[in-house]
From TrEMBL:
Residue runs in coiled coils: 186-213
Protein name: Diguanylate cyclase
Region span, Disordered: 383-403
Record keyword Coiled coil present: yes
Domain PAS: 210-269
Domain GGDEF: 428-558
Organism: Streptomyces halstedii
Keywords tagged on the record: Coiled coil, Nucleotidyltransferase, Transferase
Protein backbone atom coordinates (compact mmCIF):
# COMPACT_ATOMS: atom_id res chain seq x y z
CA UNK A 1 0.00 0.00 0.00
CA UNK A 2 1.25 3.45 -0.89
CA UNK A 3 3.23 5.42 1.68
CA UNK A 4 1.38 8.45 2.98
CA UNK A 5 4.31 10.77 2.24
CA UNK A 6 4.53 9.82 -1.46
CA UNK A 7 2.08 12.52 -2.63
CA UNK A 8 4.27 15.17 -0.96
CA UNK A 9 7.36 13.79 -2.73
CA UNK A 10 5.50 13.87 -6.04
CA UNK A 11 4.29 17.40 -5.35
CA UNK A 12 7.87 18.55 -4.63
CA UNK A 13 9.09 16.85 -7.83
CA UNK A 14 6.28 18.46 -9.82
CA UNK A 15 7.19 21.89 -8.46
CA UNK A 16 10.87 21.41 -9.38
CA UNK A 17 9.89 20.18 -12.85
CA UNK A 18 7.48 23.09 -13.29
CA UNK A 19 10.23 25.55 -12.34
CA UNK A 20 12.69 23.92 -14.77
CA UNK A 21 10.13 24.16 -17.62
CA UNK A 22 9.41 27.79 -16.67
CA UNK A 23 13.15 28.54 -16.96
CA UNK A 24 13.09 27.14 -20.51
CA UNK A 25 10.36 29.59 -21.49
CA UNK A 26 12.30 32.54 -20.04
CA UNK A 27 15.38 31.90 -22.16
CA UNK A 28 15.90 34.70 -24.69
CA UNK A 29 18.00 32.91 -27.33
CA UNK A 30 18.68 29.44 -28.67
CA UNK A 31 21.99 29.22 -26.79
CA UNK A 32 20.29 30.28 -23.54
CA UNK A 33 17.54 27.73 -24.15
CA UNK A 34 20.02 24.88 -24.69
CA UNK A 35 21.93 25.77 -21.53
CA UNK A 36 18.64 26.08 -19.61
CA UNK A 37 17.71 22.55 -20.79
CA UNK A 38 21.01 21.17 -19.46
CA UNK A 39 20.72 23.11 -16.19
CA UNK A 40 17.16 21.88 -15.70
CA UNK A 41 18.35 18.26 -15.74
CA UNK A 42 20.58 19.02 -12.75
CA UNK A 43 18.37 21.43 -10.80
CA UNK A 44 14.94 20.06 -11.62
CA UNK A 45 15.35 16.31 -12.17
CA UNK A 46 17.95 15.35 -9.59
CA UNK A 47 20.89 14.24 -11.77
CA UNK A 48 24.47 15.36 -11.20
CA UNK A 49 25.30 15.55 -14.93
CA UNK A 50 23.18 16.60 -17.88
CA UNK A 51 24.09 16.91 -21.56
CA UNK A 52 22.18 18.21 -24.61
CA UNK A 53 23.16 16.57 -27.92
CA UNK A 54 21.62 18.51 -30.82
CA UNK A 55 21.13 17.22 -34.37
CA UNK A 56 23.09 19.30 -36.90
CA UNK A 57 21.95 19.96 -40.47
CA UNK A 58 24.25 17.14 -41.69
CA UNK A 59 22.55 14.67 -39.35
CA UNK A 60 25.37 14.24 -36.82
CA UNK A 61 24.86 15.24 -33.19
CA UNK A 62 26.92 17.93 -31.45
CA UNK A 63 27.25 18.46 -27.70
CA UNK A 64 25.45 21.83 -27.51
CA UNK A 65 25.25 22.28 -23.73
CA UNK A 66 26.52 20.58 -20.58
CA UNK A 67 25.79 21.05 -16.86
CA UNK A 68 27.08 19.63 -13.61
CA UNK A 69 30.85 19.46 -14.15
CA UNK A 70 32.95 22.33 -15.50
CA UNK A 71 35.89 20.05 -16.44
CA UNK A 72 33.62 17.78 -18.48
CA UNK A 73 31.92 20.80 -20.04
CA UNK A 74 35.25 22.21 -21.25
CA UNK A 75 36.32 18.81 -22.60
CA UNK A 76 33.33 17.67 -24.65
CA UNK A 77 31.19 20.75 -25.46
CA UNK A 78 31.24 21.28 -29.22
CA UNK A 79 32.41 17.74 -30.00
CA UNK A 80 30.44 15.74 -32.56
CA UNK A 81 29.20 12.16 -32.61
CA UNK A 82 28.08 10.49 -35.81
CA UNK A 83 24.40 9.79 -36.44
CA UNK A 84 25.23 6.12 -37.01
CA UNK A 85 26.77 5.76 -33.54
CA UNK A 86 23.84 7.49 -31.89
CA UNK A 87 21.29 5.34 -33.69
CA UNK A 88 23.21 2.29 -32.54
CA UNK A 89 22.96 3.43 -28.93
CA UNK A 90 19.28 4.21 -29.14
CA UNK A 91 18.47 0.91 -30.83
CA UNK A 92 20.42 -1.26 -28.36
CA UNK A 93 19.09 0.50 -25.27
CA UNK A 94 16.47 -1.06 -23.02
CA UNK A 95 13.21 0.80 -23.81
CA UNK A 96 11.69 2.63 -20.84
CA UNK A 97 8.70 3.92 -22.82
CA UNK A 98 10.45 6.61 -24.97
CA UNK A 99 13.62 6.57 -22.84
CA UNK A 100 16.56 4.26 -23.61
CA UNK A 101 18.67 2.72 -20.82
CA UNK A 102 21.97 0.87 -21.44
CA UNK A 103 23.25 -0.92 -18.32
CA UNK A 104 26.98 -1.09 -17.65
CA UNK A 105 26.93 -4.81 -18.43
CA UNK A 106 26.04 -4.02 -22.07
CA UNK A 107 27.63 -0.61 -22.56
CA UNK A 108 31.28 -1.68 -22.59
CA UNK A 109 31.06 -2.14 -26.38
CA UNK A 110 30.43 1.63 -26.70
CA UNK A 111 33.61 2.77 -24.97
CA UNK A 112 35.50 3.19 -28.24
CA UNK A 113 32.86 4.69 -30.55
CA UNK A 114 32.96 8.35 -31.62
CA UNK A 115 30.20 9.68 -29.36
CA UNK A 116 31.64 12.20 -26.87
CA UNK A 117 31.31 10.74 -23.39
CA UNK A 118 32.36 11.48 -19.84
CA UNK A 119 32.12 9.22 -16.84
CA UNK A 120 33.76 8.90 -13.44
CA UNK A 121 35.02 5.88 -11.61
CA UNK A 122 33.05 4.53 -8.69
CA UNK A 123 32.41 1.45 -6.59
CA UNK A 124 30.51 -1.52 -7.89
CA UNK A 125 26.78 -1.39 -7.10
CA UNK A 126 25.70 -3.14 -3.92
CA UNK A 127 22.00 -3.29 -4.82
CA UNK A 128 20.19 -4.40 -7.96
CA UNK A 129 18.79 -0.94 -8.72
CA UNK A 130 21.91 1.03 -7.74
CA UNK A 131 23.37 3.30 -10.44
CA UNK A 132 26.69 2.19 -11.94
CA UNK A 133 29.21 4.79 -13.25
CA UNK A 134 29.01 3.20 -16.71
CA UNK A 135 25.19 3.08 -16.86
CA UNK A 136 23.73 5.25 -19.64
CA UNK A 137 20.28 6.81 -19.82
CA UNK A 138 19.06 8.74 -22.91
CA UNK A 139 15.90 10.76 -23.54
CA UNK A 140 15.35 11.35 -27.29
CA UNK A 141 13.76 14.67 -28.30
CA UNK A 142 11.51 14.77 -31.36
CA UNK A 143 10.30 17.77 -33.32
CA UNK A 144 6.70 18.86 -32.76
CA UNK A 145 4.01 17.72 -35.14
CA UNK A 146 3.60 14.09 -34.08
CA UNK A 147 6.38 12.69 -36.28
CA UNK A 148 9.60 10.90 -35.34
CA UNK A 149 11.99 13.53 -36.67
CA UNK A 150 14.86 13.41 -34.16
CA UNK A 151 15.71 16.85 -32.78
CA UNK A 152 18.35 15.77 -30.29
CA UNK A 153 19.09 13.53 -27.31
CA UNK A 154 19.34 14.33 -23.60
CA UNK A 155 21.89 12.18 -21.77
CA UNK A 156 21.88 12.08 -17.97
CA UNK A 157 24.19 10.53 -15.40
CA UNK A 158 24.56 9.95 -11.66
CA UNK A 159 21.16 10.36 -9.99
CA UNK A 160 21.68 12.11 -6.66
CA UNK A 161 19.96 9.33 -4.75
CA UNK A 162 22.32 6.77 -6.31
CA UNK A 163 19.45 4.68 -7.67
CA UNK A 164 18.17 3.98 -11.14
CA UNK A 165 15.06 6.15 -11.62
CA UNK A 166 11.72 4.52 -10.87
CA UNK A 167 8.46 4.96 -12.78
CA UNK A 168 7.88 8.49 -11.42
CA UNK A 169 11.45 9.62 -12.24
CA UNK A 170 11.25 8.14 -15.74
CA UNK A 171 7.95 9.88 -16.43
CA UNK A 172 9.38 13.20 -15.21
CA UNK A 173 12.46 12.85 -17.47
CA UNK A 174 10.34 11.87 -20.47
CA UNK A 175 7.98 14.79 -19.93
CA UNK A 176 10.93 17.16 -19.52
CA UNK A 177 12.45 15.92 -22.80
CA UNK A 178 9.13 16.64 -24.55
CA UNK A 179 9.01 20.17 -23.13
CA UNK A 180 12.69 20.73 -23.95
CA UNK A 181 12.04 19.77 -27.60
CA UNK A 182 9.19 22.31 -27.75
CA UNK A 183 11.36 24.99 -26.15
CA UNK A 184 14.25 24.38 -28.59
CA UNK A 185 11.90 24.40 -31.59
CA UNK A 186 10.29 27.61 -30.37
CA UNK A 187 13.70 29.20 -29.76
CA UNK A 188 14.69 28.41 -33.32
CA UNK A 189 11.38 29.78 -34.57
CA UNK A 190 11.77 32.96 -32.53
CA UNK A 191 15.27 33.42 -33.87
CA UNK A 192 14.00 33.08 -37.43
CA UNK A 193 11.13 35.47 -36.78
CA UNK A 194 13.39 38.04 -35.13
CA UNK A 195 15.71 37.94 -38.10
CA UNK A 196 12.70 38.41 -40.36
CA UNK A 197 11.54 41.39 -38.32
CA UNK A 198 14.99 42.98 -38.52
CA UNK A 199 14.98 42.62 -42.27
CA UNK A 200 11.55 44.30 -42.41
CA UNK A 201 13.07 47.40 -40.81
CA UNK A 202 15.90 47.78 -43.28
CA UNK A 203 16.08 50.31 -46.01
CA UNK A 204 13.45 50.59 -48.75
CA UNK A 205 15.55 48.85 -51.43
CA UNK A 206 15.76 45.66 -49.29
CA UNK A 207 12.06 45.64 -48.43
CA UNK A 208 10.88 43.13 -51.04
CA UNK A 209 13.51 40.56 -50.08
CA UNK A 210 12.62 41.01 -46.42
CA UNK A 211 8.92 40.57 -47.12
CA UNK A 212 9.55 37.31 -48.98
CA UNK A 213 11.67 35.98 -46.15
CA UNK A 214 8.97 36.91 -43.66
CA UNK A 215 6.28 35.34 -45.82
CA UNK A 216 8.10 32.02 -45.92
CA UNK A 217 8.77 32.05 -42.21
CA UNK A 218 5.10 32.85 -41.61
CA UNK A 219 3.57 30.39 -44.05
CA UNK A 220 5.79 27.41 -43.23
CA UNK A 221 6.10 27.90 -39.47
CA UNK A 222 5.26 24.65 -37.63
CA UNK A 223 3.18 26.62 -35.10
CA UNK A 224 0.14 28.76 -35.79
CA UNK A 225 0.76 32.34 -36.92
CA UNK A 226 -1.67 35.22 -37.49
CA UNK A 227 -1.54 38.88 -38.51
CA UNK A 228 -4.25 41.12 -37.08
CA UNK A 229 -5.22 44.77 -37.32
CA UNK A 230 -3.92 47.03 -34.57
CA UNK A 231 -5.92 50.05 -33.42
CA UNK A 232 -9.14 51.50 -34.76
CA UNK A 233 -12.61 49.99 -34.86
CA UNK A 234 -11.33 46.74 -36.34
CA UNK A 235 -8.60 46.21 -33.72
CA UNK A 236 -7.74 42.54 -33.38
CA UNK A 237 -9.49 41.38 -36.57
CA UNK A 238 -7.52 38.60 -38.25
CA UNK A 239 -6.11 39.64 -41.61
CA UNK A 240 -3.94 36.65 -42.43
CA UNK A 241 -3.36 33.16 -41.00
CA UNK A 242 -0.98 30.37 -41.91
CA UNK A 243 -1.87 26.77 -42.64
CA UNK A 244 -0.72 25.57 -39.21
CA UNK A 245 -3.23 27.86 -37.46
CA UNK A 246 -6.02 26.82 -39.82
CA UNK A 247 -5.36 23.18 -39.01
CA UNK A 248 -5.16 23.98 -35.32
CA UNK A 249 -8.53 25.77 -35.29
CA UNK A 250 -10.26 23.46 -37.79
CA UNK A 251 -11.31 26.46 -39.92
CA UNK A 252 -10.20 27.66 -43.39
CA UNK A 253 -8.38 30.99 -43.71
CA UNK A 254 -11.40 32.60 -45.38
CA UNK A 255 -13.52 31.87 -42.30
CA UNK A 256 -10.88 32.92 -39.78
CA UNK A 257 -10.66 36.35 -41.42
CA UNK A 258 -14.19 37.06 -40.14
CA UNK A 259 -13.07 36.78 -36.52
CA UNK A 260 -10.75 38.29 -33.96
CA UNK A 261 -9.20 36.30 -31.11
CA UNK A 262 -11.77 37.94 -28.79
CA UNK A 263 -14.53 36.20 -30.79
CA UNK A 264 -12.84 32.79 -30.45
CA UNK A 265 -11.62 32.86 -26.86
CA UNK A 266 -13.36 30.86 -24.11
CA UNK A 267 -15.73 33.11 -22.07
CA UNK A 268 -13.75 32.37 -18.88
CA UNK A 269 -10.51 33.52 -20.56
CA UNK A 270 -11.67 36.83 -22.04
CA UNK A 271 -10.18 38.68 -19.07
CA UNK A 272 -6.81 37.02 -19.66
CA UNK A 273 -6.87 38.10 -23.32
CA UNK A 274 -7.76 41.69 -22.44
CA UNK A 275 -4.97 41.88 -19.85
CA UNK A 276 -2.41 40.81 -22.42
CA UNK A 277 -0.50 43.82 -23.69
CA UNK A 278 -0.31 44.27 -27.44
CA UNK A 279 3.44 44.50 -27.77
CA UNK A 280 5.40 41.67 -26.22
CA UNK A 281 2.20 40.29 -24.66
CA UNK A 282 1.84 36.63 -23.80
CA UNK A 283 -1.09 34.60 -22.50
CA UNK A 284 -2.24 31.02 -22.08
CA UNK A 285 -5.94 30.59 -22.86
CA UNK A 286 -8.51 28.47 -24.70
CA UNK A 287 -9.67 29.10 -28.27
CA UNK A 288 -12.81 27.64 -29.84
CA UNK A 289 -12.48 25.17 -32.68
CA UNK A 290 -14.99 24.59 -35.46
CA UNK A 291 -16.30 21.38 -33.79
CA UNK A 292 -17.27 23.32 -30.65
CA UNK A 293 -14.37 22.13 -28.50
CA UNK A 294 -11.78 24.40 -26.92
CA UNK A 295 -8.02 24.06 -27.28
CA UNK A 296 -5.38 25.36 -24.85
CA UNK A 297 -2.89 27.61 -26.68
CA UNK A 298 -0.10 30.02 -25.83
CA UNK A 299 -0.36 33.42 -27.56
CA UNK A 300 2.76 35.54 -28.07
CA UNK A 301 2.35 38.97 -29.65
CA UNK A 302 4.78 41.17 -31.59
CA UNK A 303 4.19 44.42 -33.48
CA UNK A 304 5.31 44.77 -37.12
CA UNK A 305 5.02 47.71 -39.52
CA UNK A 306 4.17 47.51 -43.21
CA UNK A 307 6.71 50.27 -43.97
CA UNK A 308 8.84 52.59 -41.91
CA UNK A 309 5.92 55.03 -41.47
CA UNK A 310 3.10 52.73 -42.48
CA UNK A 311 0.36 51.09 -40.41
CA UNK A 312 1.31 48.69 -37.65
CA UNK A 313 0.00 45.15 -37.37
CA UNK A 314 -0.10 42.55 -34.64
CA UNK A 315 1.87 39.35 -35.30
CA UNK A 316 0.65 36.52 -33.07
CA UNK A 317 2.38 33.21 -32.54
CA UNK A 318 -0.12 30.50 -31.49
CA UNK A 319 1.35 27.38 -29.89
CA UNK A 320 -0.67 24.26 -29.08
CA UNK A 321 -0.16 23.50 -25.35
CA UNK A 322 -3.12 21.13 -24.92
CA UNK A 323 -0.90 18.17 -24.06
CA UNK A 324 1.15 20.18 -21.58
CA UNK A 325 -2.00 21.44 -19.85
CA UNK A 326 -3.38 17.92 -19.71
CA UNK A 327 -0.14 16.66 -18.19
CA UNK A 328 -0.14 19.49 -15.65
CA UNK A 329 -3.71 18.68 -14.62
CA UNK A 330 -2.85 14.99 -14.42
CA UNK A 331 0.21 15.66 -12.27
CA UNK A 332 -1.76 18.01 -10.02
CA UNK A 333 -4.50 15.39 -9.60
CA UNK A 334 -1.99 12.65 -8.77
CA UNK A 335 -0.27 14.88 -6.23
CA UNK A 336 -3.55 15.75 -4.45
CA UNK A 337 -5.39 12.41 -4.63
CA UNK A 338 -4.88 8.99 -3.11
CA UNK A 339 -3.39 6.59 -5.66
CA UNK A 340 -5.35 3.57 -4.37
CA UNK A 341 -8.88 4.92 -4.02
CA UNK A 342 -8.77 8.05 -6.19
CA UNK A 343 -10.16 10.11 -3.31
CA UNK A 344 -8.64 13.43 -2.22
CA UNK A 345 -5.66 12.71 0.02
CA UNK A 346 -4.74 14.15 3.40
CA UNK A 347 -3.05 17.25 1.92
CA UNK A 348 -6.03 18.05 -0.33
CA UNK A 349 -8.47 17.52 2.56
CA UNK A 350 -6.55 19.99 4.70
CA UNK A 351 -6.40 22.47 1.83
CA UNK A 352 -10.17 22.36 1.26
CA UNK A 353 -10.89 22.63 4.97
CA UNK A 354 -8.42 25.49 5.42
CA UNK A 355 -10.14 27.44 2.63
CA UNK A 356 -13.33 27.54 4.73
CA UNK A 357 -11.67 28.78 7.93
CA UNK A 358 -10.30 32.13 8.99
CA UNK A 359 -8.32 33.10 12.08
CA UNK A 360 -11.00 35.31 13.64
CA UNK A 361 -13.78 33.60 15.60
CA UNK A 362 -17.32 34.12 14.36
CA UNK A 363 -18.33 36.22 17.37
CA UNK A 364 -15.50 38.74 16.82
CA UNK A 365 -16.31 39.14 13.12
CA UNK A 366 -20.02 39.52 13.86
CA UNK A 367 -19.28 42.32 16.33
CA UNK A 368 -17.08 44.17 13.80
CA UNK A 369 -19.70 43.81 11.08
CA UNK A 370 -22.45 45.02 13.43
CA UNK A 371 -20.45 48.12 14.40
CA UNK A 372 -19.71 48.94 10.76
CA UNK A 373 -23.37 48.45 9.83
CA UNK A 374 -24.47 50.80 12.61
CA UNK A 375 -22.04 53.50 11.40
CA UNK A 376 -23.30 53.21 7.84
CA UNK A 377 -26.93 53.49 8.97
CA UNK A 378 -26.04 56.69 10.88
CA UNK A 379 -24.53 58.20 7.72
CA UNK A 380 -27.61 57.24 5.73
CA UNK A 381 -29.85 58.96 8.26
CA UNK A 382 -27.71 62.12 8.18
CA UNK A 383 -28.18 62.36 4.40
CA UNK A 384 -31.88 61.64 4.54
CA UNK A 385 -31.72 58.04 3.34
CA UNK A 386 -34.19 56.21 5.57
CA UNK A 387 -34.72 53.23 3.32
CA UNK A 388 -33.32 49.77 4.03
CA UNK A 389 -29.55 49.90 4.07
CA UNK A 390 -27.57 47.48 1.94
CA UNK A 391 -26.41 44.35 3.72
CA UNK A 392 -22.93 45.65 4.54
CA UNK A 393 -21.05 42.74 6.05
CA UNK A 394 -23.88 40.36 5.18
CA UNK A 395 -24.61 38.46 2.00
CA UNK A 396 -27.95 38.75 0.25
CA UNK A 397 -28.66 35.11 1.11
CA UNK A 398 -28.44 35.80 4.83
CA UNK A 399 -24.95 34.44 5.38
CA UNK A 400 -22.59 36.72 7.22
CA UNK A 401 -19.60 38.27 5.40
CA UNK A 402 -16.19 38.77 6.97
CA UNK A 403 -14.73 42.14 7.75
CA UNK A 404 -11.80 43.38 5.70
CA UNK A 405 -8.32 43.29 7.30
CA UNK A 406 -8.65 46.93 8.37
CA UNK A 407 -12.00 46.31 10.01
CA UNK A 408 -14.19 47.17 7.00
CA UNK A 409 -16.95 44.67 6.25
CA UNK A 410 -16.38 44.30 2.52
CA UNK A 411 -14.61 40.94 2.24
CA UNK A 412 -16.79 38.17 0.79
CA UNK A 413 -15.56 35.46 3.17
CA UNK A 414 -18.51 33.60 4.69
CA UNK A 415 -17.84 32.63 8.29
CA UNK A 416 -18.15 28.96 9.13
CA UNK A 417 -20.09 28.41 12.35
CA UNK A 418 -21.09 25.27 14.24
CA UNK A 419 -24.79 24.56 14.87
CA UNK A 420 -26.06 23.99 18.39
CA UNK A 421 -25.82 20.26 19.07
CA UNK A 422 -28.21 20.07 22.05
CA UNK A 423 -31.16 22.02 20.66
CA UNK A 424 -32.42 22.56 17.12
CA UNK A 425 -32.13 26.31 16.57
CA UNK A 426 -32.23 26.02 12.78
CA UNK A 427 -28.53 26.75 12.33
CA UNK A 428 -26.42 24.73 9.93
CA UNK A 429 -22.69 24.30 9.49
CA UNK A 430 -19.84 22.36 7.94
CA UNK A 431 -19.91 18.84 9.39
CA UNK A 432 -16.65 16.86 9.59
CA UNK A 433 -17.34 13.11 9.84
CA UNK A 434 -14.27 11.11 10.88
CA UNK A 435 -14.60 7.43 9.89
CA UNK A 436 -12.45 4.56 11.17
CA UNK A 437 -13.09 1.04 9.86
CA UNK A 438 -13.72 -1.68 12.45
CA UNK A 439 -12.18 -5.09 11.77
CA UNK A 440 -10.05 -3.95 8.85
CA UNK A 441 -6.72 -4.87 10.46
CA UNK A 442 -7.77 -8.49 10.94
CA UNK A 443 -8.75 -8.70 7.25
CA UNK A 444 -5.40 -7.24 6.22
CA UNK A 445 -3.49 -9.62 8.51
CA UNK A 446 -5.50 -12.71 7.57
CA UNK A 447 -5.99 -12.31 3.82
CA UNK A 448 -3.15 -9.95 2.85
CA UNK A 449 -2.81 -6.44 1.48
CA UNK A 450 -4.42 -7.31 -1.84
CA UNK A 451 -7.72 -8.02 -0.09
CA UNK A 452 -7.25 -5.03 2.20
CA UNK A 453 -6.73 -2.73 -0.78
CA UNK A 454 -9.87 -4.09 -2.48
CA UNK A 455 -11.87 -3.42 0.71
CA UNK A 456 -10.58 0.18 0.89
CA UNK A 457 -11.49 0.78 -2.76
CA UNK A 458 -15.02 -0.55 -2.25
CA UNK A 459 -15.54 1.42 0.98
CA UNK A 460 -14.40 4.58 -0.85
CA UNK A 461 -16.93 3.88 -3.60
CA UNK A 462 -19.77 3.31 -1.16
CA UNK A 463 -18.99 6.47 0.80
CA UNK A 464 -18.87 8.53 -2.40
CA UNK A 465 -22.26 7.29 -3.60
CA UNK A 466 -23.90 8.27 -0.29
CA UNK A 467 -22.96 11.95 -0.28
CA UNK A 468 -24.13 14.94 -2.31
CA UNK A 469 -22.36 16.62 -5.19
CA UNK A 470 -20.11 19.20 -3.59
CA UNK A 471 -19.40 17.15 -0.46
CA UNK A 472 -15.88 15.81 0.02
CA UNK A 473 -14.91 12.22 0.77
CA UNK A 474 -11.17 11.96 1.50
CA UNK A 475 -8.84 9.20 2.59
CA UNK A 476 -6.81 10.44 5.54
CA UNK A 477 -4.53 7.39 5.54
CA UNK A 478 -4.70 3.67 6.38
CA UNK A 479 -8.34 2.77 7.11
CA UNK A 480 -9.38 6.31 8.06
CA UNK A 481 -11.69 8.44 5.94
CA UNK A 482 -13.10 11.94 6.40
CA UNK A 483 -16.34 13.37 4.95
CA UNK A 484 -16.93 17.14 4.68
CA UNK A 485 -20.61 18.00 4.28
CA UNK A 486 -21.71 21.64 4.34
CA UNK A 487 -25.13 23.06 5.21
CA UNK A 488 -26.09 20.38 7.76
CA UNK A 489 -27.85 20.70 11.09
CA UNK A 490 -26.75 18.46 13.97
CA UNK A 491 -29.58 15.98 13.28
CA UNK A 492 -28.71 15.93 9.56
CA UNK A 493 -25.09 15.05 10.35
CA UNK A 494 -26.19 12.22 12.67
CA UNK A 495 -28.49 10.85 9.95
CA UNK A 496 -25.67 11.03 7.41
CA UNK A 497 -23.34 9.08 9.72
CA UNK A 498 -25.99 6.35 10.05
CA UNK A 499 -26.45 6.16 6.26
CA UNK A 500 -22.71 5.95 5.68
CA UNK A 501 -22.28 3.24 8.33
CA UNK A 502 -25.16 1.21 6.86
CA UNK A 503 -23.58 1.53 3.39
CA UNK A 504 -20.28 0.10 4.66
CA UNK A 505 -21.75 -2.87 6.61
CA UNK A 506 -22.85 -5.15 3.68
CA UNK A 507 -20.30 -7.88 2.83
CA UNK A 508 -17.61 -7.11 0.28
CA UNK A 509 -16.62 -9.86 -2.15
CA UNK A 510 -12.95 -10.15 -3.03
CA UNK A 511 -11.68 -13.05 -5.17
CA UNK A 512 -14.80 -15.10 -4.42
CA UNK A 513 -14.55 -14.48 -0.66
CA UNK A 514 -16.99 -12.33 1.33
CA UNK A 515 -15.43 -10.10 3.97
CA UNK A 516 -17.09 -7.58 6.22
CA UNK A 517 -16.06 -4.46 8.08
CA UNK A 518 -17.87 -2.05 10.35
CA UNK A 519 -17.29 1.63 10.89
CA UNK A 520 -17.13 4.11 13.75
CA UNK A 521 -17.97 7.75 13.06
CA UNK A 522 -17.13 10.88 15.00
CA UNK A 523 -18.95 14.09 14.08
CA UNK A 524 -17.05 17.33 14.47
CA UNK A 525 -17.83 20.84 13.26
CA UNK A 526 -15.58 23.31 11.46
CA UNK A 527 -15.72 26.83 12.87
CA UNK A 528 -13.78 29.99 12.14
CA UNK A 529 -11.18 30.57 14.83
CA UNK A 530 -10.16 26.88 14.79
CA UNK A 531 -7.21 25.43 12.94
CA UNK A 532 -7.52 22.52 10.53
CA UNK A 533 -5.75 20.23 12.98
CA UNK A 534 -8.10 21.26 15.78
CA UNK A 535 -11.14 20.48 13.61
CA UNK A 536 -9.81 17.03 12.61
CA UNK A 537 -8.66 16.27 16.17
CA UNK A 538 -12.11 17.11 17.53
CA UNK A 539 -13.82 14.75 15.07
CA UNK A 540 -11.18 12.07 15.73
CA UNK A 541 -11.71 12.23 19.49
CA UNK A 542 -15.48 11.97 19.09
CA UNK A 543 -14.97 8.96 16.86
CA UNK A 544 -12.98 7.16 19.57
CA UNK A 545 -15.60 8.05 22.18
CA UNK A 546 -18.23 6.54 19.90
CA UNK A 547 -16.04 3.48 19.24
CA UNK A 548 -15.46 2.82 22.96
CA UNK A 549 -19.17 3.24 23.72
CA UNK A 550 -20.06 0.27 21.51
CA UNK A 551 -19.12 -3.35 22.14
CA UNK A 552 -16.74 -5.12 19.78
CA UNK A 553 -19.51 -7.35 18.41
CA UNK A 554 -21.80 -4.36 17.90
CA UNK A 555 -19.05 -2.48 16.08
CA UNK A 556 -18.55 -5.40 13.70
CA UNK A 557 -22.27 -5.49 13.03
CA UNK A 558 -22.21 -1.82 12.31
Amino acid sequence: MEAESEPYVRLATMRQLHQAVADLNRARSLADTLQAVADGIVTGLGYELGCVNLVRPDGDLVVAAFAGNSAAEALITGRVGSRESWERRLSMGEPWDELRFIPHTDGWVLLDDDVPQWHTDGPEPRFEDEWHPLDRLYAPMYASGGGMDLLGVLSVDRPRNGRRPGAWGREALQMYASQAAIAISNARLRANMQRALVRLEREQQALRASEESFRQAFEYAPSGMAIAEMGGDQHGRLLRTNDALCRLMGRPASVLRRYSFADLVHPEDIGTLLRTSAEGGRAELRLGRRDGTYLWVSLRNSVVADTADGPRFLLTHVEDIEERKRNELNLAHRASHDALTGLPNSAELRSRLSARLCERPHSVAASAASSASTAIEALDAAYGDTGPSPAHGYRADGLEGDAAPDGGPYDHHVHTVAPHEERDDGSKGLAVLFCDLDGFKSINDRFGHHTGDAVLIEVARRLTTCVRDGDTVARLGGDEFVVLADGLAAADAADLAVRLRNAIIPPIRVDGRAVRVGASFGIGWAECGMTVEEVLSSADQRMYVEKRSRSKVHRRAG
